[in-house]
Structure formats: structure tokens, C-alpha cells
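Q: What structure does this chain adopt?
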Amino acid sequence: MLIFAVMGQAYPVLEILPELQSTLAKHTIAILQAPPGAGKSTVLPLELMNEPWLQQKKIILLEPRRLAARSVAERLANLLDESVGERVGFRVRFETKVSARTQIEVVTEGILTRMIQGDNSLEEAGLIIFDEFHERSLHADLALALCLQLQQVLRGDLRILIMSATLDGAHLSSVLGGAPVITSQGRQYPVTLRYAAQDSDTPAAIRMAQTIRRALREEAEGDVLAFLPGTGEIKRTQELLEDEGVDAVIYPLYGDLSFAKQQEAILPRRDGRRKIVLATSIAETSLTIEGIRIVIDSGLARVPRFDPRSGLTRLETIRVTKDAADQRAGRAGRLGPGIGYRLWTEGIHMSLQPQRKPEVLEADLAPFMLELAQWGVKDVRELTWITMPPTGAVSQATELLTQLGALDERGITPRGKAMLRLPTHPRIAHLLLEASDVEGDAGVKNIKANPLAALAADLAALLEERDPLAKESGADLALRVEALRKWRHGDRVYADRGVLERINKLATNWRRLLRVDEDNTIPHDAQVGRLLVAAYPERIARQQEKHSERYKLTNGRFFRLPQHDPLMREPWLCVAQLDGGSGEGKIFMAAAVQLNDLLALASSQEVVRWDTERNQVVSVIEKRVGTLVLESRPAAAADEAQRLRVLCEYIRTQGLSVLGWGEAQERWQARVMNARAWRPDEHWPDVTEEALLQSLDEWLTPYLTGVNKRSELERLDLSSILSGILPWELQNRLDAVAPTRLPVPSGSMINVQYFADGRLPIIEVRLQEMFGLLETPAVNEGRTKVLLHLLSPGYKPVQVTQDLKSFWQTTYHEVRKELRMRYPRHHWPEDPWTAEAVRGVKKRTS
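A:
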């Protein structure tokens, strides 16, 4: 074995090497579970690179971080006694070291996606290794989905190896069609864990410095690896330790350090002095730091999360998950028994999430969906996913890409292809392209800068990094550009120097790509705004009142600037950072925009709408961006279909009362609804208010010719229009099924009250008019008895019944006694069956 010859020692993963070689010879997909330090990243690629099934093709090793990619490449090259770029090379953002001899390429996740898009069959690759797959980054999930389809359609010989220290291999295997799972037990010494006695609000840097000093006192041997969430906490901890004069050499370790500085932290010291490595989560996996026996964990990590305020993915500080905490602690048990200090209580540890969520569930999917569009995928369900992308996030991303001009109804556009060639978010890519002369899908090498290119590079870097100015500095993005350029020129500025350094480094990379020189002149506000609109076309905002802090965005929502912010003098803004929140949101970062620049982006369209002040339909030609109207002028005449649509929408909003709906229409409605309930086989229509409003297009629009005003709607002959809803045969049937009046023995025609909610019809009639009638009157052609409200001569309720015959037999005689006393002038016969019914007063005969 190659590693035995080079290292003189065996890594645990070598024990399963024969099984892995045999598995990959027979299967195109395999899953390897092996703990940290087993040699997954730095042993297996070298042992596999001469396998017969590779057919002299490359191995591509995917690492989640740039530092890991470069370090692993350096380690592999050292084992071969070569320089990076020979048989082992790497590709990371803005840097590549490969050659014609390269057999193993260590790449970061986004780079692999670019490689697949550039060569749809990956002809030069024979094996793709996904290292640290448990981190479940968006790029790793995407790259795996693309590789799986590539394997199924074009490259049946392509091998895929998925590796992780903490992974649910059984679940992954089931998703991948029963792919074999190989497990390496590894070699891990016990690690004694010490938890904090109580939770604390003390800043992480202070607690970390205190615990490091304690660990150095309690443990006489071994180097210290301390995990902190970010560079700010690392620098602060280093300052605190140096002020105390600890007896150890301190090394920071984070992604933005130079590679030489990173290697100093990773490699052992020759003089034997103890060292303290202050690291971010990049030291959790892939990297092996020699000599570590003590791990101190802040319990915090900075992870990429979609930030709705900026519309970009930014780093957010969160508590680590249990599996990440275990991996961190495991770094202390590589060489022998170790110690792990945790700056949280054991109780809090029990409440930690067991595993990190796949990034696809929480990420901004705009870059992801643009990659899929380039691949030719229109429906995400076409691919095999370990976790299916959420439907809502997919729709939101597609809408944004359409606004940016990257997608249309046919798929990816030439502008979208050009955006995809830039290693950044589509928003930023679109901003950069606005400052270049590239059109279509021309390559990055063909970019030609225009006069705004240097400003675009600075803006892109500012948007991708943290705000360098304090919160009280106001929201104007142009101030940030000015601060960056003054600092770069050597002037003193009140800003975070560390953030400015990172911004400038990124801006330098963008200037190199755009082929433009550094520019430190103070930019015009309008230029900043013009470029910002390219990144945030949906975040243009219009001031509601002159010098007001209140603005309305294109989506119709309202947001406010900080009080007394100088940007309040600007009527138009483009917003880069905002807080959606509930109610009216806050604007954190924005730039002034000139109306002329917006007019160039605006679309003209005829708008037919209801004017609430004039209470009528109006037609105007508007220039608008989203919901914001930039200019408006009257149109010659309203489009007929649009006019009718607006009228119907207005009626639906106001209800049927706007048509003069009253008691007569309610009576008709109730009659029809009763007929519908009684005679389902006759197909009576649904005439509830909800149904009538939904079907306005069918029954009302033929009568709206020339109608534009509310007053004209109110003058419509609604009863006549409603009757037309019924077919001719049902119009004739309505009086038979649901008559408006019923005759009674006195000769009177009594109105029938109907109810649309299904209650029994009612007639209210004086008792004296019903003498001689044995059965209750009925509607529905005699099938449905009405509910009788029998009244006194003074029209006061006497009895309610649906059984008149029973009333005469039982209750009438008690009622008669009371009525004789109250109405002595009226005739109240003992026998109501044979008595004559009367309308008025019939005097008593005795």
C-alpha cells in the first residue's frame, strides 16, 4: 500500500480498503462511514487513484471549505513528495492549481457544479468523492443530484463515493437504491468532557480566554484547540490571552487567513512549545491539527443562512448541534486520551438539536435554481434528492430569477448563462454584468468593463460582506463606498478595519475579473443607485410624502428609514437591506435612485381600474416598476374586457348591494333556493350571494354595456336581470313550486315568506281568516307545509304551528278563552271546523 510506504504507519481506514476497492469495482455508488482521523480524505484518494476501473481518469474530491480543500491537496501532494499542481491539484474560488498531469483534483462544492456544467459528461473524471457529506450543504446536495443523473444518462461507468463521520448511512442507502454501506471503526481515544457549571451571558471571547487559562493550569501537557464562531471572537480572545501573557504560542485559524498562516496553525512547532489554536468550525472536519489534546468549545457556529433583509445568504451565529459538538470534542482524542471543555451546561446539551438541518430546507434557492435551469431541469422532481427542495422556496427563487432576466418561459436566458459564469449570487452577478459589455453567454474571459466597473466591484464586495459602519451611520450605501475608498486611499475612517480588509480583498478579485483598475474617487449617489437596482429590481421604493421616512416598495409593503436619516431627502430609493417583520418594516441599507434611471427600467401598460374618488371605471397609460407608478396619463378608451373585469371585481368587493339589491331580490333568492332544495332533479341554479358574485361574468356582464359609474350600476333593473338566470321552463315553474302568496278561507291572498337558509316558509294570518280549514296550507305543489303564524285581530302572535288540524282539536279552546276576553266584539265560535272565516269584525251572536 502506498501509504504504508510513505507514512510508516497505518491509518484505521486502511483496514476496510480491500472491501472498498472490491465494492467500487462492482458498484457505481458506495457510502463510507468513518470517524474523524481515520484517513478518509488523505489516504483513500491516493490508494484509489490507480484502480483498474478508473481507466486512468481523474478522482475529484469534494470538500466543503476552501481551507480544507487546499490543506487536503497539500497533504496528498506531500505524501507523493510532489508540489501541489502535479498529480494532486485543487480548485477553489478565484484560485486554481492543476496541470495536465493532475490525477486528483480537490475542489470546493461550487467548483464541482461549475465543472459539471462545463462538461456535461465529466469525461475526464472516473470517481467523485463527496467528503464530509453530513454537513448537507446546498452545493453538495445539488452536485450529488447532478452526478446521479449524469451517471444514469451518460456515464454508467462513473463512480460516486459518499463519505462522512456522522451520517445516517441506512437512510442514504435507501434513497440511493440500496447503495452498499462500508463502516470503518477508526481509532478514537476517550475524551473526558467538562461542562460549564451554569449558563452565562458573558461574551464568548471572555469566557473562552478564561477557560483556556484554566485548561493550561489543569492540564500540564498537550496543545489546545478552541472553537469560536468567527474571526471577531478569535481576535478578541487572542488579545485577551496576549494581555495576560499565557505561556503558549497563539495561532488563529479561519478561512480568510493566508494559506501560509493557516499552515502555521495546523503543523506542529519544532521547538516543542505548547500552542493554542483559535479556530472557527473549519477545524471540525477534514483538517488534522497535530498535537491537540485539549478541545475547548464555545458551542457556537456561524453558518450560512438566507437573510431576507438582504436577499442574500449570510453567516448567522447559532448553537452547534450534538453531532458537531461530538466531532469537535473528538479532536482531543486523536493521539491519546483527551479533555473536552464545553462552555455550556449539561442541561443545555441535552436540548441541542441532534443533527444539523440540510441547507436546502432553509436556503435561498436562487443560485440553485439557476444551476438547474442551465442543466435543463424545469421541475426539481426530475432529479433524485436526498432532501426534496421546498416548493415555496423554489417558486420564490424562480420569480426572482425571472425579474433579473435570467429565466423566461423557455428556460435560462443568455443573460442567465452569463450570470452563471460569475462565482457569486445571481443578484450580484447581475450587478457586475450591468457594469460590463458582456451579453449572451460569453465567457468570463470576454468581459469588457464599462466606466462603472470599479464601482460595481466595490458594491458587490460590500453587499457580500458585513456592514463596515456602525448602526448609527445611517442607511446610505454610498457612504459605505466612500468609507471603503477613503480607507483604501489611506485616510482615517470610522469603520471596522477587519471588515474593510475582507471587503477590499473581495473587491480586488472582482476588479481582476472585470479587468478594471482600482478607483478611489467619491462616487455619485445616482451611480450607486443605478447599479443597486440591477441586484434588487423588486426593492425600489417611493417616498410617500416629501421628507418623510416612510416608503412604499414595489410589492406594496411600507418600510421606514431610521429617524432623521439623510436619505429622507430622496424621493426614490433602492433597498439593499431591510427588516420585513410584521407591520411596517425598517430600511437598514439603501441608495438613492434617479427617476430617469427608473423610467428606463419601467414598462408601459394600459391600466383599467376603479377610481374610488370618482366612483367609476378609469383607463390610464402607466409607466410602472412593480406596483409603483412612475408616470400616468389618461388612455383614449378602456379595453372592453378589462372594463368588464374591473366592474365585476368592484361588485365582488362591495357586494350585491351596489346593484340596488333589496327585499324584492332577497325574496326571489329565497324562493329559488327553496326550489333548489326541494327539487334537486330539476337543476335549479345556486343563487346565494357568494354564487352570484362568482358568476357575474355569466349573468350580469351582458347588461353592463355603457355602464362605468356606481350610480349607473344602481339604476340597473336588477329583478329583470335576475329572472334571466333561470331557464324559461324554470321561470314558469317558480310560481308553482314557490308561490309568492297563498289563498286562505277568508278569500285573502297571504304573502309567503321564504328563507334561503332552509327554514320552513311562513305565512302570517289572522286566526279568524282560517276558520273552516282543516289542513295546513302547503307550497312545493302541496308537498311542503308552511309554518303558520296565527295572529289575533290586533296582529299579535297567538300560535305557531305546522299542524292546523291538531291546533283546532287541542289548543284552540284555550286560545279562544283568552281571545274572547281581549277581543269581546269579535266572534269566537266553539266549532272552528264549520265556522265562517272572516277578514274583519264579525260580532258575537250571543
